[in-house]
Amino acid sequence: MLSARAPFLLVHASSLVVWGLVAFSATSWVLHDAGSDMSSSLSAPREELGLEVDATATARSLGLVAVGPVAAPALASRFQLVGVLAGGPSQGAALIAVDGKPAKPFRVGAPVAEGLVLQSVQGRRVNLGAGGDAAATLTLDLPPRK
Predict the structure, then answer these.
(1) How far is Cα 127 from Cα 96, in angstroms, rounded to an integer?
(2) Which of 3.20.14, 2.30.30, 2.60.40, 3.10.620 is the CATH number of 75-141?
(3) Which of 45, 90, 128, 134 is most open to solvent, judged by the fewest CB atoms within 10 Å of its CB?
(4) CA 20, CA 87: separation in Å to the nearest integer?
(5) Domain extents for the chain?
(6) Edge-to-edge strand list for the sheet holding 136-141
């Protein structure tokens, strides 16, 4: 025997199925139309709207303050001397961190950066330059001991 709740549950279940089919149908039509719009926009170029945007005015309205050209960092600020191994006038090595990267070992005569070679190692100081007998472009000192 059917209980008194059976027709009530049947109505709700069928209503759920019908609305599910309506939602599925609407979604499929929307996706179908969106797909056809995408293919037509790829095949035929759209007309230009003719709107011109002033980039500086937009930047000012968003709060950008005009700043002068940014200066390149000083040459000495790119390098940090971490350690020194002195071994004579044309021997030795140094641990140098370049551009904030981890320190790497460099021997005397090895290129440290573009245009800079480790020229000499003396005590707690190293000289970097163009190489050979050229004058030292940059002198790095170890930080003081604590």
Answers:
(1) 12
(2) 2.30.30
(3) 45
(4) 83
(5) 75-141
(6) 111-113, 116-122, 125-129, 136-141
pLDDT band at residue 62 under the 50/70/90 scheme:
confident
Can you give the pTM of this predicted structure? 0.48
Q: How far apart are CA 134 and CA 116, in angstroms?
A: 11
In sequence order, what DSSP letters do the residues of 11-65 get, joined into one string? HHHHHHHHHHHHHHHHHHHHHHHHHHHHHHHHHSPPPP------HHHHHHHTTPP
The per-residue pLDDT for 87 is 78
Q: Phi first, then psi: give them for residue 122, nearest 5 degrees.
A: -140, 110
**Model pLDDT for residues 119-143, shown as the tens digit of each residue:** 888 888 888 888 767 778 888 898 8
Q: Which residue has the tokens 């790095």?
A: 140
Please tell me what DSSP assigns to residue 94: E
Q: Which residues of 64-90 are buried (b: 16+ CB within 10 A; e: fewer)?
A: eeeeeeeeeeeeeebbbbeebebeeee
- Mean residue pLDDT across the chain: 80
